[in-house]
Amino acid sequence: MSPPRTAHPYIPSSAPETQEAMLDKLGIASTDELFTSIPERLRVAGELALPPALPSETELRRYFSETLAGNTSTAEHLSFLGGGCWGHAVPAVCDEIAGRGEFTSAFQGLGGASTSGSYQALFEYQSLMSELVGLDVTPLPAYDWAWAASTGLLMAARATRRGRVLVADTAGGERRRQIAARMPSRIELEWVAHDPGSGAVDLADLEARVEGAAAFYVETPSYLGYLEPELDAIREITREAGCLLIMGVDPTSLGLVRDPGDVGADMACGDLQPLGHHQMYGGNAAGFLSLRFDDTLLGELPNIYLVAVPTVRAGEHDYFWGNFESTSYATRGASDDVIGCGSTMAGITAATYLSLMGSTGMAELGEALGTRVSYLADRLGSLVGVDTARLSGAPFKELVVDFSGTGRSPAAVNAGLLERGIFGGIPLEEDFPSLPGCALFSVTEQHTSGDIDRLADALKEVLA
Amino acid sequence: MTVRENFHQAAWQEPLITELGSPGERGATVPGFDGPAAEPLAEDLRRSAPPELPQLGQPQVLRHYMRLSQMTLGHNVALDATVGTTTPKYPPVVNELIARSPKLTALHPEQPPETTQGLLELLWELGECFKALSGMDEFALQPQGGAHAIFANVLIMKAFHASRGDDHRDEMISTLATHPTNPAAASAAGFKIIEVPVGPQGYVELDALKAAVSERTAGLFLNNPEDTGVFNPEIDRLADVVHDAGGLCAYDQANANATLGIARARESGFDLCHFNLHKTFGAPMNLYGPAAGAVGVTAELARFLPTPLVVKQDGRFALDTDRPESIGPIRAYLGNIATLVKSYAWIRALGPQWLPEVARVAVLNNNYVQQQMEELPGVSVSFPDNHERRLDVVRYSLEGLKESTGLGAEELNNRVPDFGIPAHWTSHHPFTSPEPLTLEPTESFSRTDLDETAAVYRRVVQEAHDNPSLVATGPHRSSVAQMQPEALEPGAVPPATARLMRERRPRAALEVAAPASGPA
Questions:
Q1: Contact call for A239 and B351, based on CB within 8 A
Q2: ipTM for this prediction
């Protein structure tokens, strides 16, 4: 079907007058003549089975807003969902910068000057994230946390020329599956167990596996929410075996909690979502990967990092790709890894967030989360049959809550909470078989004591 | 058409944020808590020294990043047909507003599906659109960009062969004109790469492919049109060659803007394909992502798609994770939701009548610019033996200009931004023609925009002849002056952060890595 003889607002040269003038200039009668390289047998037959156009903004907005009305969001219900996507406060300035069309409509470009503002902002991202994690270099953001973690593991395998990598099994189930999906068959992936009482890494199991391993990946706080208590011992064990240490961290913890650089980690990774991004159904996940500087490791980095390059004007810098030649853009099939579009814009939003918060804000955030999770543990722990001390570690902002003493499954508890306008915690048993009847409850700095009281009161009703 | 003689890009001389502010200033506060105080965190778990982050008031933070945004020539402010192969097009403002609804932004991915029916419905409908536009049978929306989608397709091929006990297929075929992420993704998944050269027409010829396939062939990855704008009319016959050898065919549809509603993966005989939503489907480029790559496959391969998938059951929408042969999740949750929703809004704003017009006008615009570019001395079109029209892009060669003036594609990029146009794209590696320059004037540009773009090149080529030093020493009116990479200290750690710039540390050797114990 041919389009109506009027222009579409997104396609200026669909105006019949313009199009005819352009065709005349090319000496052809119709746009059909532009496609003679596509043989008839390769053409689509008939009209595409697509829903009808919503040609005006009014119709378009109405359709989307009416359809989205079928959602009930965490802005309407009280939510204790976390586990890798969190409802932290998003400063208004982050929304403003994240929405700047100058940035979002741009391709980062390969020419420096014309997009140098975005390059500078990203160089600042590299600088601020490196400060936060205490490591030297943070390349541009990757797809997500698991991609960053597996990139670190693959880099370690190449740098050490070893074919086996270790992952603490306190990483999230989805993240473990993502890492497993990413590993090529030449890499052997082993899980390191945790102590079922504390939720911490089982050091004996680590010692039993560490010999000949390229790297050990451990999260702190773990998916279960607890800060790893024996980081120095982990570093010692891995260092003696020549095994690199990669720490998965929650960046919201690092104003308060010991940073990977201080631990002596070789690399660190995590998610940028909690730094100024909305939850967006998990859509704003964005991975960061940082490393301490050394030539070998940096040479294995598949991701682009920017460097400050002096310009011909005294004292002025532009910021540009520091390692194009070693990325798969240049090495193609000779690389062991691949990069493409990552999560670059998320870096600018994260830099904006860290600039607003500063070290004081980040420290206060860490304290604010600790205070709330502690109150959550007290309130829920006082309910009959509910155990908030199932694991003995120090929780950061998430807590394992054991309902097995109540005779109700987490799913049944959540159904009762949902009726009361509350999203309860994520059931854990499927990914953590040692934690039957348990769920992961998460708080942010946006929770008030009243919110936590409301949860406790609702639980009391549900469990009655 | 005249060029913007007095253009000057914003040049704020903005210091790094690490150099701004004063002790005690802050840009945000954290809400207080009226409950009981917690026990302080144990000393050995605490950070020993605070991170060195900016101390800056809120207006200063805003102003800083606003200034940097002004020093960025995005599509919304500039004629960026110069960033060829990225499909620079208008990301509609209304879609940005739709994606800011709290009904979307405040959704958590672990919410029960009965509370996210609206979003799941949109995602399901988007998948149906991609099925129609590609002819494939099922789609997954999880990958977060083109390379990520290609990687998913490599894993699907691997899983398909493994499911048949066919474990000896360890070679993946691509072409030297195909985007580098295709061979790289296959290599990352452990395949050996065979890159077939392109013939004088600019595409892989049947005999060249026949020579490359064998019983070790897992599959084929290529673009069509390739990043040169050349369409391979033998594409279905290439697919036959690979199928006859027992391999699968994946269509990299990064350049689908030229064929939208006109030619599809299905009719070309391909088994898998992917669309780049941040290119073809009007979602923002976001500099370099977050983006999205939707993966489509034939019914036979659907069981290997990454999970979870959005499915429709009895009029309700659900997440299907029960696919035992799935390659597994390759991205957290359901993918880049904002980009997916914006792409769907873009499709609905056009509908079945206007979508093919997108391709038609994009190709018209490209040919219109080509006519003016070819008039410039020293500028030619790559693969001159191919007399067919180029589709979405033209891969120009400035070889003649370089020979007569000493200035080629890289050098011209010093001057182009002085007229308000972002620096241009040359070519992916390897260069299949000398001094490459790739323009992609999509359907978003008006005839006047195209005339202005061509006028800038007319002017810069003229200057290359008349005043080469003016070109060579540019930019003169951009945000910053020309970089001097040779001024970097070779013996120092690369200045990749403000701290490393300050400290100028010498390079150090790896202390942790173990001695070689066989290839990893």
A1: no
A2: 0.98
